[in-house]
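**Polypeptide and fold**
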Amino acid sequence: MKIKFQFENIVYSANSGDSIASALISNKIFEINNNGLSKRGIFCGMGVCHECLVEVNGENNVRACMRKLDNNAIIFKQKQIKITKFKNDSSYQKKGCESFSSDLLIIGGGIGGLSAALAASNCGVNTILIDDREKLGGQFCKQPIIGENATSDDQVILGKKLINKVINNGVKVFTNSSVFAIFENKEILAIKDNELITFRPKKIIFSTGAYEKGYPVKGWTLPGVMTTGAMQGLLKGYNVLAGKKILMCGNGPFILHVAKELKKGGAIIIAISEKSSKPNIFDYKIMFQLLLNSFKLFLKGIRYLLFLKLNGIPIYYNHEISSIEQNANGLTATIMNTGGNDHKSFEVDCICLGYGFNSSNNMLRYLNCRHDYNSELNCLVTFRYDDLQTTVKDIYAIGDCVKISGAQVAELEGNISGYNVAESLGYEIVSEYLKEKNLCKIKLHKLEKFQNNLWKLYKSNNYNLANLNKEIEICRCEGIKYSALKNALENGFTSMSELKLKTRVGMGPCQGRYCGQIVLDILKHNCGVQIKESDFFTPRIPFIPLNIEHLTELVCDE
């Protein structure tokens, strides 16, 4: 069914069930925001970057990618983050916070969270599962919001089966629920459908996944440039192609998978720019380990490459995106080889950036769960004991929020952690489930070996900071350019906290999720800083921006 909406006083149509973002993109509207710095559009597609903020029916600060489109909605660009008007009148009544208690709370409804919920509920554990999306499934098992999906594959089917089993087991599910605060007593505060709710579980499993890394080049903030996950989400969730002609730039097998989905969905993949070297005969040891530890995944990768070759999609190895510019019909993108002596330009509608992932670990770090810096992976890794419990009692963590390991690892860890929680709470685990848990442990060991070798195969250097243009924006939220950071460094500001105070880097609504790692790499390059956990931006509550009205609801009358 079609519905109507207005954007900037022009009437458009969209499918019932569309998000605001998918509705705008389906109408070829890429520029939807002006943050006071430059034109912006959809970037992350998962509510992290806050660059798609719009005004809807007079309500400010609405994330277009996270809000369902209402019929006859009136939408305007939002030039900057605005203070929501507080209802300071006699008609305003403070609402009480609805509270829910449970044995177990799982934060994150992707494949890991679903698997954990299923395992725990199999044993009778009173379980609550919360997720900030409209539907469970996460990115890997993303479920279509509208009709039959163009890429209804084995991942979608797996997600449906898991979701049905979880619901049939009596797990209480909260979707559209964004956690914004968590405390040492395991009290969790969330916003659901613009209402405040609290959770008080005995134990918590974090399965919050990951988000794609920032990759600063000239023009990376332009409308039409988005993460690979955002473009995949538009297609899988809403059957919307962000553009007809697409250039994909990144590092790792995920861009191959999404390229295949986009091609099958009707896109023209102009080219794939892969930062790592092309696998060759000298990688035989790595290839053998991949084959040995997961023949199924190894074969899937071969099929991706074969599909792309048969469809005439070129892959430029040892190439990375170097600049993006607007033109009359869309975007002009230039890629270059790692030596900088080979440049290729393409005119496209959209550009995907997929240069790896950052773990969504801000809540775990806020709780003071131990994290160790892994220099080889250039990231923080959550420390866990054998039972997948963190250093904070009753707090468990699984999947990509611990370290980037892939959906299959998340699924297995979810299964294991669910049974571990059940056992710790004193629930009986029947022999059938004990056997399942032990089998998962064996599979997990092999998959971890597979993933370690996969990253060796796709190993590449970070962006070349020595050649980083001074006018490139590092902090997308605040518009902080590399020149500002360089100037601060030259004046003796040589720590994350000092740079933050001096330049405001990392102080925007994304809370440094996209610029934090980049700034650390800049410090490492310019000052020789040996990175440790305390060097990263300190997580703060609220984890997401809140309206003042919601904050007032936290104040209890005596």
User: Anything to note?
Assistant: Residues 85-94 have pLDDT under 50 and may be disordered.
